[in-house]
Structures are given as structure tokens and as C-alpha cells.
Amino acid sequence: MAEIASMTGFSDSTRTTEFGAITVEIKSVNGRFLELSLRLPEELRYAEAPLRERIGAAIARGKLDCRVTIARAPVGASTRVNETVLAQISALTAQVHAALPRATPMGIGDILRWPGVIETTATDPEAWRAPLMQALDSALEGLQQSRTREGVALRAALIERCDSIDKILSQLRDGVPRILAEMERRLNERMTQALATALAGSALSREELNDRIRQELTLYGMRADVAEEMDRLAAHVAEVRRTLHRGGGVGRRLDFLMQELNREANTIASKASVIEMTTAAVELKLLIEQMREQVQNLE
User: Fold this and answer.
1) Which of 21, 119, 272, 282 has a C-alpha 20 to 30 A away from that of 55?
2) Does the pLDDT at position 213 exceed 90?
């Protein structure tokens, strides 16, 4: 049984280098198509196209927000003391001390704050490419794992509601013949009573009147019968189970099946003329709506 994935998930990953740390954070929610929002530091704009390509190859659907941040090392190979400027300060200090022997000498902090003493060499943006891609791959893997875990939970929730629908259909199959028979009996009594008076002054015979009543009862039974709708509901539920078992990208197919399930439940509700059928139709529609909301999150 292949895994199914939710479109909701979160993951982040950090890679540390001599220049600092680079972090990739990805979060996703449901969406009809792949919609990617990418936020990068200005010096990494050159990597936008490769990042989009790699994310698009890994994720099929969902609204994704990918954010890349850099935390530079405060001191490292890119920071050094300018020895030439330091020598100049030393010479100047000696001259001042010769002229003013009692002058307080400069402290280390004063020297380091002197313009030009500290030199910082800008990091080549290309140096971030390898750790950036490594962090992205790790974040994508974590996101997929997060989405798969939620997909497993959603599969279980959908199967549980399929079981509930099957149970309601089973109860309807057992009860509908009895319900229809009782409804026809009551309708027959009412029609017989209503037409009894008219029969005395009518040209219709008792047999013709009974034939007319039977025709009306047959038409009523055909309109009230929900056997076909229950059969189609059961078939759609079975297809939902097969789709969930097959796994993979099931979201769009399940969304279509939810529409068909809801169509049959609405038909049953429109034919309901007793409280038992009305209650069953309401419960079916509630379960199908719960399933539809869950399906919206599946990739």
C-alpha cells in the first residue's frame, strides 16, 4: 500500500560553515496547485531558479512558503587586523608619548575601533551554494516525512467515515422495505377513505378504483425507493477505499468522489418522507462533509 501525503507540513534545516550558518525553513498548507513563495537574502538571489526547480521536483501540490536566512560568523577567516594601520597607530602613539609622557595610552578597545584596523573580506556568494542545497534537501525530506505522517492520520480518518457510511447504508437496506410497506399501507387507507364517498356518485367501479389506487401506490413507491442511490453510494465508498489503498496523489480523485457521494445523499434526502430516512440522510451528508474537508488537505 503506497503512502498518501497531506499538503500540510513544516520542516527546517541548518548547515554551519566557516562563514556562518544557513537555514532553510519550509511550511506548506493545502492548495489546488503548487504555489511557491520564496524569500532569500539579497546575495543568494542567484540561487532562486535552482531552488524553485528542486522544490518543484519534490512537491506536487500545496501552498509552500520557503525562507532562507544567513547568520554570519562574528569572527572568522574573513576577518583580520590590518597590520599596516596597526603599525601606524603604534608610531603615532610613540610620538604622542614622547611629547606627552603623562598621557594615558590607548586601550585595546580604542585600537580596534580605529578606522581601518579591522578588515572584513566579503564572502563569495557562491560559497553558500553547496550548504544551501544541502539544507534545502534536508528540509524537503523533513517536510515530506511530516506530510506523510499527517497523510497516514487522514487516511485512517477517511476509512473510519467510510465504515460509518457503510453502517448507515446497511441499516437503510434492512429498514427501507419495511418503511415503504408501512407508508404504502397508510397511503392505501387514506386514499380508500378519501375516495369512498366519491365512488357512490361515480361511474367508476370498485375494481377500477382499486386499479387507480394501485397505480398511484406503484408510482409513489418508485419515487420513494432509494435502492439505486444506496447502490451508487456503496460503489463510491468502495472506490474511495480503493483509492486510499492505492495511495500516491489521490487528492483530486477523492475530491471528485466526494461530489458524487454528496449528490447521492442529497437525492436520498429529497426522497425521504419518514423521520428514519431523513435522519439517515442528514448523517450521511455530515459524514461526507467531514470527508470532503479532510480530502482538501491531501496531495
Assistant:
1) 21
2) no
